[in-house]
Amino acid sequence: MTTNGQVKTKYAFYPGCVSKGGCPELYEAVVQVAEKLGFELDDKALESAGCTGAGVLSKEVSDPINARTFAMAEAAGLEIMTICSTCQGIMTQAHHRLKDEEYRAMINRDFLAEEGLEYKGTTVIRHMLWAIVEDFGLDKLKSMVKRPLNGLPIAHFYGCYMKRPPELMVPKEFAKTRKTALEDVIEALGGKAVKTSGRGKCCGFPILTSNEDNSMAMLGDHTLDAKAKGVKAMVTPCPLCHLQLDGKQADAEAHKQEEIDMPVFHLPQLVGLALGFTPKEMNLQRHLVSTKSIEEELGIGVEVKA
Amino acid sequence: MEVKFAVKRYDPITNADKSTQTYTAEVDEGDMVLDALLQIRDEQDPTLAFRGSCRTGFCGDCTMTVNGKGAIACRTKVKKAWDGAEDGAIELEPLKMSRQMKDLVYNAREFHWNKFRAVEPWVDPVQPPEKGEHLVPGGHDKHLTESMRCTQCGLCDQGCTVLVVDKTFVGPAALTKAYRVVADERDSRKRQRLDKLSLPRGMWDCTHCFEASEHCPKYIEPTDRIFDLHDMAIKAEAGPPKVVHHYKSFAASVKAHGWLDEGRLAIETEGFTNVKGLMKLLPLAVKAGLKGKHPMPYMLHKKRPGHEQIKRIFEKWESKG
Amino acid sequence: MPQHDVLVVGGGFAGLRAALGARASGADVGILSKVHPMRSHSSGAHSGINAALKSGDSWETHAKDTIAAGGDLSDRSAVEVMCQSAAEDVVALEHMGVIFNRDEEGRIDVTTFPGSSQARTAFVGDSAGHVILQVLFEQIVRSEIRIYDEWFAASLLMEDGMCKGVIARDLRTGELHPFHSKAVVMATGNLGQMYNGGTCSLTGTGDGVALAYRAGVPLIDMEMVQYHPTTLADRGILITEGVRAEGAHLVNKKGERFMERYDAEAMEMSTRDVVARAAMTEVRKNRGDKGHVFLDMRHLDKARMTARLQETLWLMDDLEGLDPSEALIPVKPGMHRPLGGIKIDTFGDTGTPGLYAAGECASTGAHGANRLGGNSLLDCIVFGRRAGESASRYVRGATWSPATADLVREQEEMLNEVTAKDANSDTAGAIRRDLGEIMDKNVGMVRNLRGLRKAANSVAKLQERFGALGIRDKSGAYNVELRAIREVGNMLDVAQVIIGSAEARQESRGCHFRSDFEARDDENWMKRIVAMHSEDGPKLDYEPVEAG
Ligand SMILES: Cc1cc2nc3c(=O)[nH]c(=O)nc-3n(C[C@H](O)[C@H](O)[C@H](O)COP(=O)(O)OP(=O)(O)OC[C@H]3O[C@@H](n4cnc5c(N)ncnc54)[C@H](O)[C@@H]3O)c2cc1C
Ligand code: SF4
Questions:
Q1: How would you label A97-127 residue by residue, b for 16+ Cβ within 10 Å and e otherwise?
Q2: How does pLDDT run across B128-176, given as a tens digit for each residue?
Q3: Which residues of chain C have pLDDT under 50?
Q4: Virtual CA dihedral for C61, C63, C68, C73, nearest 10 degrees?
Q5: Of A23, B27, B148, C350, which has the fewest beta carbons less than 10 angstroms from its beta carbon?
Q6: Ramachandran region, residue C354 (left: φ > 0; alpha: ψ -120 to 50; beta: rest)
Q7: With a 6 A CB cut-off, is C360 part of the ligand 1 pocket?
């Protein structure tokens, strides 16, 4: 029905592992912001869905798992909403492969039939960022802003999977909305989107175990470039990027022998702040790099306790 | 159609300070950047150096940076480049991974071909049949055939995020070539190759960021081929122990719970017995734990409903071999 | 100072195969190439390689087809060697790692190419050439054969009646270096850059042919310049015959399958000379559209096309923005492959001690007056290998001393002369374009005395312009101007030979068509034309062909 005069948009919610594991603050922020925007997140439809595989599992096993997820959303008649670039990317790629009828039939037959499921190939998967710009609308978002970001210079950091492979993630029909989705949201919230060299690059998280030096060099480069461009905070739609940008920033400082001190927001947190949520409600106190400076810039933060 | 090219010129002797020279050319709508450059060389400036050979996108010679992005000049329409030009001219530079040697010519030998050699890019057949060809019923794997279309143009390397911070990384172009031999069933050294590719600066330094695939003009999907190499290595238990642990633990976690257990992953990645590695984890874990961010390692994961189905899918896959 | 038993000049199919052949028979080998081997023209070959691999086919039938397609002018022993070795050489490629499309049993699959009576073209989708070049190069790396890439062979070191190496310019530094070697295998490929609308890579400037010619080595079959029937109308990019092998039609602007008029039996599957001339005739009779005809692929199965012709579909899309499942593809014949070149026997021997040759820059006479699709690659592989092996055998027995310092100095001075001259407003590139226009117009698919004379005069004038060229770029590094000058000089010399030979052959046969001598004349012309360098232009001689 309606919240704020909006018709509710209903999604099969796929929170992903990280938002419930390493970044619990994200999950809570999403739930609150979604409610405010009038998104109805059905958390039952995909309750028993599995991990996407995150690019770690072989496609041979992750494709069936994802097909199962798609089949469940399809049965519920809902689009899937993700809040993680990696989930979105891996699912979109699987979704693409599953367009091949022969392949889909094999997966249905060999993996899903036993559970009584069948994927017919119709599921749509949308990241919350896209849902905001495509389903909700930037104008509406703008009209709901209670605490404009006052021209704060913010760097958009998409992560790998929101942009690549481009023909899947930013196909022609969505070029208008997706090419600059994150910048557009920043601007709608009253901030100033600043282009940095790392904006579409890999944060370095995936090679943390195999080559920490390179991982830290990448992280350091991206954050330091943002700093050099006068950026006050970064925002990302990917919790894995957040784990890296925020969680490992101290290590990057050590690696680069240079202070970085760059606060990093999950997308919904930034939206939430602008919509009037308190830093506490957005769980900003859980970040490793303090967001105090931003709270002060926006004239809030005094009431926040750790 | 009149267009302008801004060429970043360089000559070690006569133009060491890298001036930019602008050329104006009258070209046809359908012309490619290489056609325009040839025209400029023939009609205006015979000193302009660039590479080029087959003119059809098969040899990988005429690579350059067009408006900031790596491109094959003979497959890039002037019109498209002109439409995308930002400062009133199509910007041309050499590929950026290695030294500019002159104008649009970069040092391919130093960078590209050395990496190529490093992956031992040839098939060592087990024992070629005495008479006739190897039998390959069902034909070669689709991806192997596809990867044979690689021209070693190196554009994926130019796109690679890791090479930006570490020039010693083997890079996606050489890894695509490596895939070509590892995936070839006729080769006898699969395991040995996977071990070698797993050495430092090898395939595990790839972040899977899909830049390589985005930059490949041949739609070869080099990123996916690197994924495939990883898959093959994990199956063969090749690869650095830490990484194999990481992958196995990830799979075990999803298999058991339906989803990922990050605490377990972190510990198992470092190895239960790797005290030093675990100590390294501690600061982050403790800090994050205090802040309520990172799940503490000892927290046991709640099994997800449906986990038994995920387990079933795993078992089915494993039984397929 | 680089020194090898065998120096191979050229890194395409022929050069790489020669190098492997020489290496396998024990020689120390170096490869010198003006582009990196993987960047060779060979990388662009699409369709496949011929060999009688299937039961029901035999090397004899293959030979028969080859000779028939070649207008009976083929050297019989060369055809025999080529067709007889084909199966083994193709299987050897498979052992090296070429993947090849497979049939149901998992054996190498074959398809029927225009002009062949049997299915005998082994293929890899539509990128056979690319794959084979890659695999040959893999083997070069494996054999640790030294590669001098981006070195330009500028002249042959000839002394005591033998070839003792080459002088080459390092493109990186601009410096000349002598390469002393007991034997040289010339494998420099095509000369098509002397035409404007050809299918040939930018490297195809006839360098090896010119170097040998000026060194006194005979050239042969130079009038035979084959046109490919289907190149993209705007850009002259080749569309593989595989398209017609898959069932594509050729239609004129009225939509008629015009091959009915020219070869009602074979239709689009007729030989190249016939199809190319048919397309041209349609255009001349105003049944074409703006100078071209069309390939109609709209009725072909889409999935099969994607599987077999992927690269071709991309070419059409990238270059012309056309989807053949919906649109007709405008095509016209384009200059494709010279059948003549340095005269060699079936061992790649030029007759000059120490000098061997193979591939497109040489001719055994196997292709006669017209070449079958899929035979060119085969030629490079078979005769490349044999040239390498022969060179290796030769160096074992050769008594040899390196070229004298005097000779080296003299040659280097000659080659550096131009660098001292200041440039006028002319450029090598402009001369090349003008040469192309002359050759397209007068020495193309249809020739006649008037046109050929005109061409000879025009080329003489271009020679004068060439002589006056100087140099703007005074730097050694990557001096492309210097390279272009040498290349155009080579092309001008070779063009003279083509024109002279074409004028001499007063008949029409295979790809050589004289509008003033339209008929084939077996009585007078069962012979091949040999050309030797002399101060006053090419001196011609004739060599009979034994029919049978
Ligand atoms: C588009 C296309 C499709 C084709 N399809 C087929 C097919 O399907 N089947 C078939 O049988 N044939 C086909 N051909 C023909 C076949 O590709 C050629 O005959 C073959 O590639 C010739 O090989 P090559 O080794 O003689 O010459 P190239 O591949 O041209 O190699 C010549 C080498 O010589 C070097 N070189 C030249 N000059 C010098 C110099 N001055 N100094 C140093 N190095 C020099 C070059 O760098 C190069 O490495 C096709 C040709 C084209 C263009
Ligand atoms: S994978 Fe693609 S981009 Fe990389 S070298 Fe090969 S063809 Fe070029």
A1: ebeeeeebeebbeebbeebebbbebebebbb
A2: 888 899 999 989 989 999 999 999 999 999 999 999 999 999 999 999 9
A3: none
A4: -160
A5: B27
A6: left
A7: yes
What DSSP element (H or E) covers C82?
Answer: helix C76-96
Asked whether the beta carbons of residue A210 and residue B204 sit closer than 8 angstroms, the reply is: yes
Query: Residue B243 has what pLDDT?
Result: 82
- Counting ligands in written order, the one closest to the CA of B177 is 2
Question: Cα separation of C510 and C340, whole Å?
Answer: 13
Vertex C224 angle, CA C221 and C225, to 5°: 135
Choose from B198, B199, B259 for mutation: most chain A CBs within 10 A. B259
Best B209, B219, B286, B294 residue to mutate vs chain A (most A CBs within 10 Å): B209
- B47 in C contact zone (CB under 8 Å): yes
pLDDT per residue as tens digits for the range B206-256:
999 999 999 999 999 999 999 999 999 998 888 888 888 888 888 888 888
**Topology classification of domain C407-544:** Methane Monooxygenase Hydroxylase; Chain G, domain 1 (1.20.58)
**Interface pTM, i.e. ipTM:** 0.95
The answer to whether B232 and B193 are in contact (CB under 8 A) is: no
Say yes or no: B152 contacts chain C, CB-CB below 8 A. Answer: yes
- pLDDT, tens digit (0-9, with 9 covering 90-100), for B11-40: 998 888 889 999 999 999 899 999 999 999
Query: Which residue out of C170, C199, C235, C376 has the highest number of ligand 1 atoms within 8 Å of its CB and is therefore the one to mutate?
Result: C376
Task: Count other C-beta atoms under 10 Å from residue C526's C-beta.
Answer: 15
**Closest-CA residue of chain C to B57:** C44
Residues of C serving a catalytic function are 228, 244
Q: Is the pLDDT of residue B276 over 60?
A: no
Cα(C13) to ligand 1 centroid in Å equals 7
CATH, domain A2-127, list 1.20.1050.140, 1.20.120.450, 1.10.287.130, 3.40.50.1240: 1.20.1050.140
State the pLDDT confidence band at B109, using cuts at 50, 70 and 90: confident
Chains A and B touch (3+ CB pairs under 8 A): yes
Contact (CB, 8 A) for B297 and B266: yes
| B315: CB partners within 8 A, 6+ apart | none
C31 — contact with chain B (CB < 8 Å)? no
Domain C-terminal end among B71, B106, B141: B106
Task: Give the CA angle between residues C508, C512, C518 to the nearest 5°.
Answer: 25
Tell which B residues from 233 to 252 touch A, by Cβ distance under 8 Å.
234-235, 240, 242-243, 246-247, 250-251
